[in-house]
Design brief:
The protein is mainly beta and 264 residues long. The protein folds into two domains: 11-139, Jelly Rolls (Sandwich); 142-243, Sandwich (Jelly Rolls). Helices cover 6% and strands 53% of the residues. The strands form four sheets. Strands 1-20-17-22-15-14-13 form a seven-stranded antiparallel beta sheet, with no helix packed on it. A seven-stranded antiparallel beta sheet has the order 2-3-4-11-6-9-12, with no helix packed on it. The longest helix has 13 residues, at 251-263. It is globular, with a radius of gyration of 18 Å. The N and C termini lie far apart (46 Å). The mean pLDDT is 95. Belongs to the pirin family. InterPro entries: Pirin (IPR012093), Pirin_N_dom (IPR003829), RmlC-like_jellyroll (IPR014710), RmlC_Cupin_sf (IPR011051). Residues 54-117 form the Pirin N-terminal domain.
């Protein structure tokens, strides 16, 4: 299993509302220049932070499954499905944008979290009925194991089940302890270090990763991934498991096909 570390200068940044809302993007949109353009069904990943109260006016989405997972603060969500919801730290919202939806967000100063896009087969998803759902902190199963706290956020035992093949965990590793997981054949792990320093180990490689660094672990055979927290403090990670290769035509391919159909 290969382990690649991407520091902040190999990611990209963005901002909204005149800089009130800023983003660090381990995976940016096509053409933005991030070193990692996608990992399987994982299409986009942004870590947002509200420097001041911020507002994103209504804007459209189509096809993609978009989750927002809050680390801190408060968001008010509104969309063209008639949804008006308020989310706090530990909560997650899911937009399965289907044939199209518009939404807006208000961010309280100090809010931070992740907006992550997963790509289902857009040849079908683009025609599906859009849907919204959200989940509170207490809705997610949490397991304590060998000095680790493991929260299932997407897939597996989580109440959040997507069409796109994806699993996501929020993992805290106590200082000096280690988290281990088997990575199935044909799958990769994309990980973001929220806080702390850690050592990532596979059978063939060992790499170190610090706060805000992005890690991609990929192998062509089943393998054990071990992440060790440094003795100086706890480490918190967001881990996402997705197929290493997209198992159907990509966004770009579907976009070209839709353009051709429209011009007929």
């Amino acid at each position: 299993m290969s382990i690649r570390i991407y520091p902040i200068d190999q990611q990209v940044s963005g901002q909204f509302d005149e800089g009130r809302l800023v983003e660090q993007k381990p995976i940016g949109f096509p053409g933005e220049g991030s070193a990692v353009e996608r990992v399987g069904t994982l299409f986009y990943w942004a870590w947002f932070q509200a420097k001041e109260d911020a507002y994103l006016p209504p804007h459209p989405h189509r096809g993609f499954e978009i989750i927002s997972y809050l680390l801190e603060g408060h968001i008010q969500h509104q969309d063209t499905l008639g949804t008006q919801r308020s989310l706090k730290a530990g909560s997650l919202q899911v937009m399965q944008t289907g044939s199209g939806v518009q939404h807006s967000e208000k961010y309280e100063k100090g809010t931070s979290g992740f907006q992550i896009w997963f790509e289902p087969f857009l040849g079908e998803a683009n025609y599906a009925t859009p849907a919204y759902s959200d989940y509170l902190e207490q809705d997610f199963p949490v397991v304590q194991r060998d000095g680790c706290t493991i929260k299932s956020v997407v897939g597996g035992s989580s109440p959040v089940q997507l069409v796109a093949d994806a699993n996501m965990w929020d993992v805290t590793i106590s200082a000096g302890q280690a988290f281990e997981m088997m990575v199935p054949e044909g799958y990769s792990i994309a990980g973001l270090v929220v806080e702390g320093s850690s050592t990532w180990c596979s059978f063939t490689e060992t790499r170190s990763a610090g706060p805000r660094e992005f890690v991609v672990c990929e192998g062509d055979a089943p393998g054990l991934l071990r992440v060790e927290a440094d003795v100086g403090g706890d480490t918190r990670l967001i881990l996402i498991q997705v197929p290493s290769e997209l198992p159907y035509p990509s966004y770009k391919e579907v976009k070209i096909r839709l353009k051709v159909e429209k011009e007929r």
